[in-house]
Amino acid sequence: MSEALKLAKIAGDAGEVPVGCVIVNPQGDLIGQGENRKQRDQDPTAHAEIIAIRSAARTLQNWHLDQCTLYVTLEPCPMCAGAIIHARLQTLVYAVDDPKTGAIRTVINIPGSPASNHRLQVIGGMLESASREQLQSWFIYQRSQKTQKSAYGSNGNKS
User: What is this enzyme's catalytic activity, as reactions (predicted)?
Assistant: First the structure.
């Protein structure tokens, strides 16, 4: 999870919501990684989990990631939860619940749904406080930037 937090920082520093993800094989080797890239790539599917799943599948030359573990700093959204299920990942470990779009346990439970064709082991709360602090600090900073921009005109003078 510490590697996922490093990737989340890279995303946050680039102006993205700071979410990072890594995938490891049964031996603990890193086989895929990603951080949020929606803004940079102008791609609504460029979530950390999707990028990491694509990377791991390329590494293994197989879309079945059934012996692998995915670590992510924020509870996956519905799109990412679906991708995790379809990739047949064995285990999902995430840091922080997402009260707005969490699709693992918080808002909805896609892995436990009758629509899920795969059972996924889920572990929540790993390095939760570090991830929560990173997310909260990023959002506080983003809000302060918006407040500053709205207080000053386009020429930099106070309105």
Answer: adenosine(34) in tRNA + H2O + H(+) = inosine(34) in tRNA + NH4(+)
